Amino acid sequence: MKTKNRKWLYWIIGGILVLGAVWYFFIRAEEVKIQLETVTPEMGEISNSITATGTVQPVDTVAVGTQVSGIIKKTYVDFNSTVKKGQLLATLDPDLLQFQSEQIKANLQNAKSNLAYNEINFNRQSQLYKVGAVSKADFDNATNQYNAAKAQVNSVNAQLSTANKNLSLTNIYSPIDGTVLNRNVSEGQTVASSFSTPTLFSIAKDLTKMQVRASVDEADIGNVKVGQKATFTVDAFPDETFKGEVSEVRLHPTVSSNVVNYTTIINADNSSLKLKPGMTANITIYTEILENIMKIPAAATSFRPDSLVIKKYKVNSPFNHEKKGKGKGRSQNMNPDNKTNEAAVWIIGKDSTLSRKKIKTGMDNDTEIQVVSGLNKNDHIVTGYKLLSKKSSGNAAKSPFMPQRRGGGGNNRSGGGGGPR
Question: Same domain, yes or no, for 111 and 153?
Fold first, then answer.
């Protein structure tokens, strides 16, 4: 009988131990631990910027054409050729213009011969008129023929000069030092200049200096000024950032899909010759830059201790007399004299006490905020916290695709959202 009682006792004790283990390891609520995330103010640069897209172009491009029609007889340069000012680029077949010049030369000889005859006749009629051997009408007729002959010689001379000039234009020379970007003609091709001058070659003056033609949206163009710094990248060199400066904001608008854009010219150095004409550029124009100022992350002004933080840390706020909700986020009341706002951040002291501190802020680019006054470089400012557990060991992973509540779920938190900060 005693043996049976002992067995039941063992079973009861064993059951109690199993239930205790299940409760301890699986049911018992794990103690919540939090770790505050803090930063200290740092000195550096803060800026506001706008983004745009554009194309890389040479600073100066010259279209070389022809003033006369003809057949391309010979080309002496090709794509990417480096040329000097006055260098022969191409020649047109000169035969037709040469024949015209020879014909006009013959006409000139005939006009000169006619002038010589009329000059002799004028001199003879003049002598006879003086002695009364001919009438005034005959003398006037001889004078008119002589003057007409002189005018004819001058006219043919002008025609000959024009023909010789056209003949010289069959040689196409480079007007500048540069690089041939495009060749639009080939040997044997006919070019006609009847209505407009055809473009034979496009020559870039200096490829070591480029310009980016950015299309800036009308909502941003008001902040763009000449002299502002700019950076841009191109797809060919995605890891390299090129620097430039705004040199011109053109007033002529362009409309695409009901969006108004303004062309903004950005000059850039291209000593490395990495930039090629026509490349697409992703541009950042810095509309305002402040250097050597104190700054903190924007998240610091959004933190507010919630119930979890209050349980683990002593919270000491010297602004409890403020009305609830006042000072929510960064103050929107700007001082017009020095362009500063008021905000509040939470400082953690050496004794793990959280204290609320008012600060004055300046420029805000939604990522960083300029601190005008109210902080020193040794202050540890709370920007948020993350939950710790045995499973996470302080490194809880969080999917970037999952929505996060302000001050709610998730392992990283920035506080309770609303209320004074």
Answer: yes
411 falls within a domain? no
Q: Of 290, 324, 350, at which residue does a domain stop?
A: 290
> What does the DSSP assignment read for 30-97?
PPPEEEEEEE--EEEEEEEEEEEEEEEEES-EEEEE-SS-EEEEEE---TT-EE-TT-EEEEE--HHH
Residue 279 and residue 245 in one domain: yes
> Which residues share a beta bridge with 182?
202
The two structure tokens encoding residue 42:
């740092």
Residue 79 tokens read as 């794509």
Same-domain pairing of 65 and 55: no
- Do 212 and 283 meet the contact criterion of CB atoms below 8 Å apart? yes
Closest CA relative to residue 89, chosen from 65, 107, 67: 65
Q: How many domains does the chain have?
A: 2
Q: Determine which helix (DSSP H) or strand (DSSP E) holds 417, and give its type and residue range.
A: none
For residues 68 and 128, membership in a common domain is answered with yes
- pTM score, two decimals? 0.68
The answer to whether residues 285 and 50 touch, using CB atoms and an 8 Å cutoff, is yes
Separation between Cα atoms, residue 264 and residue 284, nearest integer Å = 12
Measured CA to CA, the distance from residue 147 to residue 241 in angstroms comes to 75
Nearest to 343 by CA among 379, 370, 315: 370
In terms of residue numbers, what domain contains 240? 50-59+206-290
Give the H/E segment covering residue 24. Answer: none
Give yes or no: residues 175 and 234 share one domain. Answer: no
Phi, then psi, of 274 in degrees rounded to 5: -75, -35
Residue 241 lies in a domain: yes
The pairing of beta strand 259-269 with beta strand 341-348: unpaired
User: pLDDT tens digits for the chain (421 residues)?
Assistant: 556 666 777 677 777 877 777 666 666 655 668 888 999 999 999 999 999 999 999 999 999 999 999 999 999 999 999 999 999 999 999 999 999 999 999 999 999 999 999 999 999 999 998 988 889 999 999 999 999 999 999 999 999 999 999 999 999 999 999 999 999 999 999 998 776 778 899 999 999 999 999 999 999 999 999 999 999 999 999 999 999 999 999 999 999 889 999 999 999 999 999 999 999 999 999 999 999 999 999 999 999 998 888 888 888 865 443 444 444 444 444 444 456 789 999 999 888 889 999 999 999 988 999 999 999 999 999 999 888 765 544 444 343 333 444 433 344 555 544 333 3
Q: How far is CA 155 from the centre of its chain?
A: 57
